[in-house]
Amino acid sequence: MALPRPNLPLVPTERAAWTIAAFAPIAIVIAAASPQLWVIAPMAATALVVLIVLDGLLAGSCQEWQVIVPADTEVGQDTALDVHARFTRRLISGPKAALEVDTRLAPSGRVTIALSRDSETGDYSGTVDVQPERRGTGAIVHAWLRWSGPLGLGARQTQRSLESAVRVWPDLSPVRSKELQTFMRDAQNGLIARRIRGEGTQFEALTEYQPGMDRRKIDWKASARHVHLYARENESERNNQIVFAFDCGQAMCEPVDGMPRIDRAVSAALTCSYVALKGGDRVSLFGFAQRPQVLTPFVNDSRAFHRLQSAAAALDYDAAEPNFTLALATLTAKLKRRSLIVLFSDFTDPTAAEMMIESIGRLVSKHLVLFVTIADSDLETFIDQEPDDIATLARSVTADTLLTQRSVVLQRLRRMGVDVVEAPYDQIGYQLIDRYFMIKNSEAIG
């Protein structure tokens, strides 16, 4: 946005402050060695102040300046903030801009941008890239612009309030990746012209048996009637209901490589949901902490994928422990048919895990549950450290205990019939897609 020119106060620069500080000991030496020459010190200070004022006046004024902010971005992606300025004088030095931003955009809440001169137009511009660490709306509240005279002693400064904001959406870079797009193009080849055959267990038609086919596909009764070998051709199951459920509680808000676990989970879920929509299934999102936050209607068209993205952006961060009993009971009451529930969660202590297991156990009786958790690489790092001191040894023992408890909980889930995916954050999306296809092809949902 273009900012009008306000009153431009003149202020000393950091160089001027260091120059004044350097003259102070010299004045003390002169006063101690030749007291009759003490007048030199105030005369030099006055001359320096006059020089600072003149240098600031030579800096001129700012005709106009703009702060250009993108309307939308994605969490974890580089986001450019631009500042453009035009000054009345060319003999200026060190123009800089500072922006007061939401901590979603920068942890310190402040961004500094150095401006450089365009040799053709004479205007100044600068850009800084920020990486949003949390979803939501990141407001840019205030802007400052400062530039100095040719000596760099006196500076002019202007400031204005801003009403700009950046909407931070979930990261969809995996959906746009060339690998996934190539995979989807190959997987969906001929989808409109024919049904997908050869997968699943739903009978579609009989076909003449050819060498190389799986012998388990041979329909012996039909072959006996026709005195010829025929194989069963199956159709892939469609129109499955898939619910991606997110634990938005304290454990999921902990960062993994600079980004909260919940945002890593949202990115993986949206990638898998895009694949599911392309495959003809229906997708819904459900988020909860102490109480349910978001429950979307089922989306059955990839053209409505933006609805899932908007709902995922509305998932809030909650520092409290999640209430699995209330959340999963609410979800069960909303579902009218057997569905695949993909639950993204994490746990830090056995007590919280026990309540989670109990709630999931009631869910397994009616639905197919896939539990997804991000592997904690920090625990493995602590375990592998050399025990050079007592603190390191204690940390390694604690990490080993937590990792053992984690393995026990995941094993209990598997024995209950829950499918479990545990992987590093950068692999969780692709492993989730692989597991989704395995479940879909086995016709275990319907």
Could you write a compact summary of the structure shown?
The protein has helices at residues 14-33, 40-58, 173-176, 178-187, 220-226, 261-278, 305-313, 324-334, 350-364, 377-384, 390-415, 428-441, and strands at residues 2-3, 10-12, 62-68, 72-74, 79-87, 93-101, 110-114, 116-117, 124-130, 136-148, 154-169, 197-208, 230-235, 241-247, 255-256, 259-260, 282-288, 292-295, 340-344, 368-374, 419-423. The chain is of the alpha+beta class.
Strand and helix layout:
Layout: E1 2-3, E2 10-12, H1 14-33, H2 40-58, E3 62-68, E4 72-74, E5 79-87, E6 93-101, E7 110-114, E8 116-117, E9 124-130, E10 136-148, E11 154-169, H3 173-176, H4 178-187, E12 197-208, H5 220-226, E13 230-235, E14 241-247, E15 255-256, E16 259-260, H6 261-278, E17 282-288, E18 292-295, H7 305-313, H8 324-334, E19 340-344, H9 350-364, E20 368-374, H10 377-384, H11 390-415, E21 419-423, H12 428-441
Parallel strand pairs: 4-11, 14-17, 14-19, 19-20, 20-21
Antiparallel strand pairs: 1-3, 2-11, 3-5, 5-9, 6-7, 6-10, 8-9, 10-11, 12-13, 15-16, 17-18
Description:
- The model is unreliable at 1-7 and 189-201 (pLDDT under 50).
- Strand 6 (93-101) and strand 7 (110-114) form a beta hairpin.
- The chain is α+β, with helices and mostly antiparallel strands and 446 residues long.
- It has twelve helices and 21 strands.
- The protein has helices spanning 14-33, 40-58, 173-176, 178-187, 220-226, 261-278, 305-313, 324-334, 350-364, 377-384, 390-415, 428-441; strands at 2-3, 10-12, 62-68, 72-74, 79-87, 93-101, 110-114, 116-117, 124-130, 136-148, 154-169, 197-208, 230-235, 241-247, 255-256, 259-260, 282-288, 292-295, 340-344, 368-374, 419-423.
- The protein has three domains: 2-169, Immunoglobulin-like, CATH 2.60.40; 173-177 and 238-441, Rossmann fold (3-Layer(aba) Sandwich), CATH 3.40.50; 197-235, no CATH class.
- The strands form five sheets. Strands 2, 4, 6, 7, 10 and 11 form a six-stranded mixed sheet that branches. A six-stranded mixed sheet has the order 18-17-14-19-20-21, with helices on both faces.
- It is 36% helix and 30% strand.
- Helix 6 (261-278) runs antiparallel to helix 7 (305-313), helix 8 (324-334) packs parallel to helix 9 and helix 10 crosses helix 11.
- It is elongated and about 125 Å long.
